[in-house]
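User: Continuing from earlier, I have the next pair ready.

Assistant: Great, send them over.

User: Here they are, in order.

Assistant: Folding the first of the pair now:
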Amino acid sequence: MGEDAESPKINHTFLRDYVTEADVISTVEFNQTGDLLATGDKGGRVVIFQRETESKGESEETGETGDSGEYNVYSTFQSHEPDFDYLKSLEIEEKINKIRWLPQQNAAHFLLSTNDKTIKLWKVSERDKRPEGYNLKDEEGRLKDISTITSLQVPVLKPTDLMVEVRPRRVFSNGHTYHVNSISVNSDGETYLSADDLRINMWHLGITDRSFNIVDIKPANMEDLTEVITAAEFHPHHCHLFVYSSSKGTLRLCDMRASALCDRHTKLFEEPEDPGSRSFFSEIISSVSDVKFSHSGRYLLTRDYLTAKVWDLNMDKGPVETYQVHEYLRSKLCSLYENDCIFDKFECVWNSSDSVIMTGAYNSFFRMFDRETGRGVTLEAWRESSKPRAVLRTRRVYTGGKRRRGDVGVDSLDFTKKILHMAWHPSENIIAIAATNNLYIFQDRVNPETQVQ
C-alpha cells in the first residue's frame, strides 16, 4: 500500500483506560447481517453492539454523504461465572472462548457462547410495549382481592421505553473433559459442533443432556499422544462436511455421510516439511491456531505462528497460497519461546468476497493480504489514531536496508500488544479488531482489493 493511498477509516472505537485481566477481549463475532457485533472477555461478559440506522444526510465533519451507521452498545450481560470441578479439583475460568450467532428466524436473535467447559444458548429480544389493564393484577403487578372485582376488561398493549432482554435458553454442559476451543453452527440451523483438545462433539440445539461424539483422537495410552485438535468448523453450505486442524499443522476434512464416527478423515491437508530447515521450534510454529472456510466453501484459510495459508479443497498436497505475516520474528523464536509468546493463537478471517484475508500480529499491528496480487499491508490499531473518521496509516517493520521515517525496528516491537481476535462484516468493508481490552471498528471507503499493495 502506498504512502498516499487512502486507508481504512475508523468508524468507532471503544477504549478503556485501565487494563484488568477480566477486561481483555477474548472473542469477536458479527451476526449474519452485520447489524450486531458481539464481544466476549476474560471476565465472562458478553457485550453486544448494534449498528445505528445509516445516515442519509451530509456529515458536518467530513462533508461526505451516506455514512454508515456507527456501532453503539446494545446490551451487556454476564454469560459465564467462575466454577470449580470438584472431581478433578480444577478451577474453571469464566473466560469466553468463542461466540457464534445463529441464523435469525424471527424478531429475536440467538447466540452461543462458551468457556472451557459449558456452552450456553442466549436469546436477545426487544420489548417496547407492555400490557396494561389486567383483571386480576393491579398496575404494580400485585394480585387483587377477587371480591373487589366487579367488571371484566380486555388488557391492552401500550408503548413503553425500549428494553433489550437477554435470557438463557439452553445450557449444554458435561460434554467435554478438556477445554473447548471451538464451536461452529451447522448450515442446517439445527445442530452445532464443539471441539476440545481431543474430541469433537455434535449437539442438537434443542437437546442439552447429550451430544454425539464425531471425532475422538485420544489414544489408549496418553503417553502416545502426538497431536491435539486446535480448531474446527462446519462447511458453510454442506451440513455433512466439517474440518478440524491440529497442532502438527495438518487439516482433516471429514464427511459425516461416510461414517458416524469421523476418526477416519476424507481428506488430509498438509505441507511437506523441508528437512533442511527443521529446528527445535518447527513443530510449535507449524501448529494451526485457526481455520476458516471461505464464504464460497471452496477454500480453507489457516493461521500458524508465522504465516497465513489458503488451501483448495480439491488440492490436498499443500497450500495454494502462503502469506508471510511476520517472518522477521524467525530470528526471535528463542526469546519468544521463553516469554511464551510463541504459543499465542492468532485468528484469521476472510472478507465478504473471499478476495482479501486478514490476521493479527504484535505491536498492535494487523495484516491484510490481497489474494489476486499477493501483496500485503500492515496497519496499526492504537489510541492515538482512534478519533472517529481518522485515516489509518500503513506501518513497516524495519529489518535492514534503508530505514524510512516511521519504521519500527524488530527489537522495538511490543509483544504485550497483540492482535489475536478479529471479525469481518459479512457483506461490507467493516472490520472489528480486539486489541487487549479495546475494540476498534474500521470502515474502508474504498474497496480493499484495490488498496492492499
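And the other member of the pair:
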Amino acid sequence: MMMIFEERIWVLFKHKWQHTLTYWSVFFSFGLCIAFLGPTILDLRCQTHSTLQQITWVFFSQQFLLLIGSCLGGLLKRTQLYSLTSLFLSTLLISLVFAFIPLCNNVAMLAVAMAIAGTAMGVIDTIANLQLVKLYQKDSAVFLQVLHFFIGLGALVSPLVADPFLADDNCVKNGTETSSNLHHLRNSLAGKGTVLHNVSHYNLHTQGMVTTNISYAFWIMALINLTVPVAVCVLMYRERMFPCLSYSPRLLEPDPRASRTHPETSPADTDQDHRDMFNCCNRSNLQDRPPSFFILHGLGGAVLFITDGIIGSFAGFVYTYAVSSPLSLHHKTAGCLPSVFWASITAGRLASIYLSYRYTAVKLLSVSLGGVVIVQSMLLMLHSSTVFLFLGTCLLGLCISSVFPCMLALTEDILDYKGCATTVLVTSASTGEMVLQVLVGLVINSQGSYSFPLSGMIAAFIGFSFFLLFLYCRHVYRNYHTDPSKTSP
C-alpha cells in the first residue's frame, strides 16, 4: 500500500514538476527576504545615520505590510494568470528592493523599501500556498512540507551571505562602543523581529564617517533572488500566458495517468476552479453553510495565530532571556540560540516531508502541538538550566516546524479546497507572528525575563486547546454532510 502511495506521489510530481519547483523557489525568495534584516540592522543603522529606536521601526513596517500583503494575495488568486503574474511581480520587487537598500541614506527610505518587500512577501505567502494546495489537493501535505522547508533554506542562506560583510566594530567612527557591545546588540536584534523598547537603553552615535561593506551583501542577494522571477516567467511562458509567444503546448494538458488520481488536469478546468475559488466567499455560496463551516475557519486560523506567534516571539526574545538572570549566559553563547532554533525548524520540515505521507495530518498535528506544550512546560520548570534551554530550543523547533503546512492541508481538505481557508490561515499566522511578539515583549519588559517561558507555556496550552476544539468541530461538520436530512440531494 505504501509503495502504491509513493508511486502516485511521484507520478503527480513528474506531471507537475515545473509548477511545483516554481512555487518552492518563490518561498526560497520569501525566506531570503525575511531573515536578512536582523543580522544587518546595525550596519543599516550606520548607513542611514539613525538611532536604534528609529531603525527598529523597519521591522514593524516589514511585518505590518506582510500582513496586508497576505490579505491582498487572497484577492489576486482569481485565475492562474493573476496568481503567476502576482508571483512574478512580487519576486521581482524583492530583487529590486535588495538592490535599492544600499541607496537608502535615511531610515524613512529604508522603511518604505521594507514595506514594499513585506507586501510582496505577504502576496507570495498566500498565493504559493494556495496554488500548491489547489494543484495537489488531497496529496498536498507532502508538497506543502517541502514548500515551507524552502523558507528555512532561504532564511539560512541570507545570514550566510551577509556575514562576511558585517562590520566587526562600530561602523560610525565617531562612536566609542566596543566590539563586544556591538556583538551583543547584533545578537539581540538577530531574531525575526524585535520590539522598540527592547533596545531603548542603547544610545549609539549617528554622526561620523560610515565604514560598512553591507551593500555588497544586498547586491549578491539581489542577484541570487533574480533567478526566482525568471523561473516564474518561464512557467508563464510554458502555460502560454504571453499572447505573442504561445507556440509551445501548455504544461498541464490532460494526462491519463494523473487523471486517475486527480480529475483537475485540464487547463480549462484549472482556470474554472480558480474562478470558483474567487467566488467561494460570496454571500450566495455561504447561505446554506452550517455554523461549523465558519468555526473551522476561525479555529484553524486561531491555531496558526498562536503557533506562528510562538515562533516569532521565541526567535525574537530567546537571546534576551538567555543573557538575563538567572541564566546570564555570555552574549556569544546566547547568540547561538536563534540559529539553533531556525536550524531545528528547517530540519523538522525536512523530516516532515517523509512523515507527512506516512502519517495523517491529524496525527502529526496532535504529536507536534502536544510536543510544543510539553517542551514549553519543561522550559518553564527548568528555567535555570542552560543545558535544557539549548535542548528545549532544538526540540521546540522540531515540534512546531510542521504545524503550518499540516494545518493548512487538513483545513483545506475538510472544506473541499475552495481556497478561502488558505487566505484566512495565512493572514491569521502573519497577524499572530506580529501581535504575539509585541505582547511578549511588553510582558518581558514589565514583569522580567521569567515571564518569557511562562508566556510560551500559556500560548502553547491555548493553541492545543484550539486544536482540540478544531477536531470536535471537524467531527460536527462531517456529521452534517453525512446526515441526509441536512444535505440537499
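Worth noting for the second one:
The two ends are 34 Å apart (CA to CA). Residues 291-323 form the longest helix (33 residues).
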